[in-house]
Amino acid sequence: MTPASETAPLGGFPAPEKKTLPRDSAHETVLCVKDLKVYFPVKKGIFKKTVGHVKAVDGVSFDLFKGRTLGLVGESGCGKTTVAKALVKLVPAHQGQVICKGRDLLTAPAPELRKLRKNIQMIFQDPFSSLDPKMTVGNIIGEAVKFHRPGEDVKKRVQDCMEITGLRREYDKRYPHEFSGGQRQRIGIARALATEPAIVIADEPVSALDVSVQARVLNLMKSLQQRLNIAYLFITHDLSVVKHISHDIAVMYLGSIVEIFNSRDLKSGTVHPYTRALISSIPLAMPGQKRNRIELTGEIPSPMDAPPGCGFQTRCPYKITRCETHRPLLERVKSRHTVACHRWKEIKFS
Amino acid sequence: MSYYFGFMHRFSSNWKIFIQNPLGKAGLALLSLFALMAVASFGLHLLGPMYDPMTGVDPVVSRSVGPSTSHWLGTDFIGRDILCQLLEGAKIAFIVGLASAFISIIIGTVVGMVSGYAGGIVDILLMRLADMVMVLPSLVILLIIAALFGQLNIWMIVFLIAILRWPAVARVIRSQTLSLKQRPFIEASRVAGASDIRIIFKHIMPNVLPLAFLYMTFRVTSAILVEASLSFLGFGDPGQISWGMMLQWVWSSGHMFQAPYWLLPPGICISLLTLSFYMVGRAMDEVLDPRLRREGQ
């Protein structure tokens, strides 16, 4: 496979913007998520009585900015994927707002929602099961084009998308099984880009790939972002990946965001005890290098009956009584850095 | 062009698996034989009016006689050629089997996909309906309908068999749909903005069709048997010769134990044709389900 030249001007796509905005300046908000809650009812008995709710996502708020990447990290089962699925309405949200282009996606009626979907596309985790095995690559990528860009030359558009993702134009007649994992993920990326979305949600897009292929796909995503000015919500459990691609990082724990910070602060600027513990678990590249790993004890509470107060209280070494009763809200630490912890000012990390 | 290659490649590799299976080989050979018989029946009029399976009577024979040079399998009780009737019967068996199987997989596939995809109350209603139809004894229902409305024509029989035999297909397609609708590629097309109808017919249907065709072969078997039974009991289409009807004539004219040359061929044909469809189905099953393949294939 010959990767497409990264600098060649391409038909149908805007040329890369030469003028780069200074960091930390105000970026245009393209997606605003407010207090998103996704509860799954737990049903029991022959009458399917609802006996409780699994609070998979419990009050998540964040903004996505044009041309920027927000990395969403957290351990398995903390609700990362549920957030992604709720944003594209693959799972119904219980409460909250997802505002895109001034419209709330969660309350938009079906015909309008189908139009809004053009702006927000998704890259899936598993490149094998996310492509219909009975469809040609051209049809897979072209499906969304047909809905959202009627009257356009679908074939040309598809081939343009394939080219910028590093696939050969003439591969559009082939079937997914004829491609390798990395190539399939490129197909997935091409599909997500086909409608020229403002926002792309990437749900662990590289975790099913080999490490060598991972880097290439990540670099592809990065260069596409620079060229097309897309906002990414990049979901992963792999902190070394998130460091590489994200401008901002949001850390999730038990269905809510505990800290959002600029990725420059990853090494030493974070203040939440969970973020600290998570970062200390990143393996170091140099052998022999010493690291202070923070070992957490205690159990994660079940999302079905989460305790009142802070979700992290069962494992937090800095817990006080206030943590058991009052749920911490996101507080501003500095520009582009918020944290949900009662004691962030007091805790001194060594 | 490469679409064509992809298709041909898959076809040829599946064909290899199919033909390596002894059941597939034997089934296909038998099936081709019967297909030849059915095709040959279209040439019967070339032999002259004497060999018309329905009306052609040998002017010198007025009772059932055994095989001879002019009648290779003998004649029936009024002097009609048994071989000609057998060939005509093969045509009818194919028509009845394939047509009713085709109709029943169409009904079954649509019901199964809708039921599995929609879920909830639609699923419950459709599946209870399927249960109700499934427990109906097809032959008895057909007999009652035939008794109520007089003689049924062959297309009516085809349609009734199809109407009574879709639930098993619907069940299988539903379960496959349940598994398919959880796959990420369905989610992906929903994110792209596809409607439910489009997802069902563009994404789910191509993925369940191989299974539907597999079940079609089994439906053919049962349709042929039901039609043969109905005809044997004297409720078939009187305007069409079928193997079941030949057996009925053997029995009603009292030749059950006098004319083995007349009794055996239709009986053997019914068994072998249903067997061959069954064997082809089993071999196709192996193509579709790799777990059934033996090591090293």
TrEMBL record, chain A:
Keyword Chloroplast: no
Domain of life: Bacteria
CDD domains: ABC_NikE_OppD_transporters
Domain ABC transporter, residue spans: 33-279
Keyword Ribosomal protein tagged: no
GO molecular function per UniProt: ATP binding; ATP hydrolysis activity
BP GO terms, sorted: peptide transport; transmembrane transport
SUPFAM superfamilies the record matches: P-loop containing nucleoside triphosphate hydrolases
Region of interest (Disordered), ranges: 1-21
Record key words, sorted: ATP-binding, Nucleotide-binding, Transport
Entry-linked Pfam families: ABC_tran, oligo_HPY
Descriptive protein name: Peptide/nickel transport system ATP-binding protein/oligopeptide transport system ATP-binding protein
Organism: Desulfocicer vacuolatum DSM 3385
From TrEMBL, chain B:
Pfam families listed in its UniProt record: BPD_transp_1
Main location (coarse class): membrane
Residues annotated as domain ABC transmembrane type-1: 90-281
GO biological process terms, semicolon-separated: transmembrane transport
InterPro entries: BP-dependent_transpt_permease (IPR050366), MetI-like (IPR000515), MetI-like_sf (IPR035906)
TM regions (residue ranges): 92-117, 129-148, 154-173, 208-235, 261-281
Membrane topology: Multi-pass membrane protein
Localization in the cell: Cell membrane
Highest taxon listed in the record's lineage: Bacteria
Keyword field: Cell membrane, Membrane, Transmembrane, Transmembrane helix, Transport
GO cellular component, one term: plasma membrane
Family: Belongs to the binding-protein-dependent transport system permease family.
PANTHER family on file: D,D-DIPEPTIDE TRANSPORT SYSTEM PERMEASE PROTEIN DDPC-RELATED, OLIGOPEPTIDE TRANSPORT SYSTEM PERMEASE PROTEIN APPC
Protein name (Swiss-Prot/TrEMBL): Peptide/nickel transport system permease protein
Origin organism lineage: Bacteria, Pseudomonadati, Thermodesulfobacteriota, Desulfobacteria, Desulfobacterales
